[in-house]
Amino acid sequence: MRQLKLGSVGLLALAVLPGCASLPITGPTGREIARAGHKASFSLVEVASTAALPSAPEQWQFAALPPLATADANAIARGDVLSMTIYEVGVRLFSGVSSSTNAQQFDPSAKGERISGLLVDDQGIVKLPYVGEVKAAGLSTAQLSREIERRLAGKSELPQVNVQIDQPNGSAVIISGEVNRPGRVPLTGAHERLLDIITIAGGYRGRDTELDVRVERGGEISEGPLSELDRSNLGGLTMQGGDRVNLIYKPRTYSILGSASKVDQFTFTQAKVSLVEAIAKAGGMNDNLADPAAVFVFRFEPKDISGDVPTVYHMNMMKPASYLLAQKFMLHDKDVIYVGSAAANRPSKLVRIISEIFTPVLLTRQLTQ
After folding, report:
1. pLDDT for the residue numbered 336
2. Residue 276's closest CA among 343, 341, 339, 227?
3. Domain spanning 23-57+272-345: which CATH class is it, in words?
4. I need a labelling partner for 163 at 20 to 30 A (CA). Which of 174, 223, 249, 273 fits?
């Protein structure tokens, strides 16, 4: 009777074996993907030599921004608040206008009067006593000083003027996003570059491979990966007042699906990640499910203005040379790596399912006997 029961179980397994194809699986086999490629639903590329390797991601090309609006990147801008110290000898026009500071640069009788809170309006004009309206936006502090001295000539005896920017509201760079100290960064005579501004703002938060940098100037925008930024491209851009910098969390990712040990989405932890590094990060291929001969990379390759071409790269990891090729196969953003399921695993899955059904029954009978 016992042999009859075991035989019945065996016959049941054989009877439902053709239903293996309907069992849950992680995805298509390598043969199924190849057949789909032959039907021209996508372009299938066999990577068996270095000649078949796709091109690695090129260095990002940042869009050009308008040149500096003035020759001096640190020029006075609309919204700045200025202060002015005027030194006069003899009869003084500005006596008592504001708090005074003694100065004896040119004459023992010269005295300095400081006028603060001078706002450069939205027309770029600043209003000064005894001088009137002066176009200040676009001028350096030295140029504005000379212009005020010129206008005071004949009204004041040997006037000497020193202009300073107290609040660089318009002549500063605004930086926001993933930086440690967002806000306004005043520009100085050092002609700060974009990388300098990021450093002055306390540096970035997180990994550079997960961030984009966006610079806006005059209504135009240049954006790209922070990891690609250096002084030979946008990182060396001389900043000017009114520029806006934003560091955006925008990670580049790839996904691993199918019969890998870990199915997940991964971020680029470095500028370049190879196929073999990506598979290793996922714990390799599942020994019980994977078909090492069926490793695929799904990608949209740019073609022309007509659109991108869906492309699938196939690599047979049963061949030792493929492990060398996989080190040269560089991933792109949003690549999908798929590890195919071995076709032989489907019958084994059925046996496991049958075992899971009957094992509790047999154990119960043994315990009750």
Report:
1. 96
2. 339
3. alpha beta
4. 174
> Which residues does 73 contact at the CB level (< 8 Å), separation at least 6?
187, 191, 192, 238, 239, 240, 241
Least confident of 11-20, 87-96, 312-321, 324-333: 11-20
Please name the residue that has the structure tokens 């991108």.
308
d(CA 111, CA 259): 84
Sequence-distant (≥ 6) Cβ neighbours of residue 176 within 8 angstroms: 182, 244, 245, 246, 247
In angstroms, the CA 195 to CA 190 distance is 13
Q: Has this prediction a pTM greater than 0.85?
A: no
The closest of 19, 64, 36, 70 to 224, measured between CA atoms, is: 64
CA distance 174 to 206: 20
Determine how β-strand 335-341 pairs with β-strand 253-258.
parallel
* β pairing state of 43-46 and 307-315: parallel
- Identical fold, 81-167 and 173-249: no
81-167, what's its fold?
wza like fold (3.30.1950)
* R_g over Cα of the chain: 36
DSSP letter assigned to residue 235: G
Nearest to 25 by CA among 331, 365, 314, 288: 288
pLDDT digit string (tens) for 241-261?
889 999 999 999 999 999 999
pLDDT of residue 101: 40
CATH class entry, domain 173-249:
alpha beta
